[in-house]
Each structure stands twice: as structure tokens, then as C-alpha cells.
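Give me the 3D structure for N-acetyltransferase domain-containing protein.
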Amino acid sequence: MSSKDQELCSKLSIRQINVDTDVDDFMVWASDDLVTRFCRRDSYKSKEQAIEYINNVAMNHPYYRVICLNNKAIGVIKVKLHEGNDKCRGVLGYVLAREYWGRGIATWAVEMVASTIFEERLELERVEALVDVENIGSQKVLKKAGFVKEGVLRKYCILKGKIRDMIMFSFLREDKS
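Predicted structure for N-acetyltransferase domain-containing protein (177 residues):
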């Protein structure tokens, strides 16, 4: 990471989303087809869609945070928690506004969550990340952040109408014994 990128990362934070102050920033990445290319949902076409999503999904999600630069939301990172016999694992997801790609920000955010999630969510033993085989950028981010590639899941899901292969990455709670 360059010194310029290190300086940038010193201005980063992760916080809960606020519909009143973050919706316009949210629309920057949520309406960008290139950013949402590997997301399960389509790009948002209206601010009203974004407000509905933030109010009904993001605000009620157990771990949904915005990635901020000088407190301006530039992306989102979340961990979906499982229940029942699967409550020991969560699934990480993140997006970042395109203008911030390649500057170490996504890696910083993933490292930040990986270093704190097990303290915040005591039931977790493992955080997984599923990445499309063509999403080379996210594969690099996860590797740099300490996630381990476990394997390729063939024909794992339908993404934007096409059956896709996914790569499973994981990050495990450190064994303290």
C-alpha cells in the first residue's frame, strides 16, 4: 500500500447506516451496474428504493455497517448471521463505490470486521465469503485480509439469471486453548 493509500486509510471508519444522512451516498454505489455486477440484487433505480431498503433491511440487520471516508459513506460491509445449528458461522459481504477501488479500502474494511466480529458476536466461530469466480478483485481483497480459499463451488447459485460458480473463503476464530 502506498503512503498516499495509508494516509487515506487513516481517515476510514465503519459505523451503522443512517437513512437521513447516508441515502445519497448509498445511491452512488447502489445504482452503479459495475459495482453491483456480482451482487445478488440489481442496481437501484430510485432514491425511494434505497430508502425502503435502508429502513426495512439495513437498519434491522444484525451487522450492517457503512464504510466511511471522513464520515462519508463510500460502501457497505455486512455479516449475515445464521441460526440454529449454523449459528456458529456468518457470511461476509461488501461493496465499495467504484472511485475507491484499488486503494486498499475494501481490504482495510474486511480486516477491521474480521478483527472485531468474533468479539461482537460470541456465537461465531467462522466467517465465510462467497465470491464469483470472475470477481478477481474481491478474491484479492479476501486473501490480503487473511481469508483462506477453501474451494470452488460449481453451479452454486443463479446470479442475474445465470448459473455461477463461486469460491468459498473463510476466516476462523483463533483457537485460544
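The mean pLDDT is 93. Let me know if you want a second pass.
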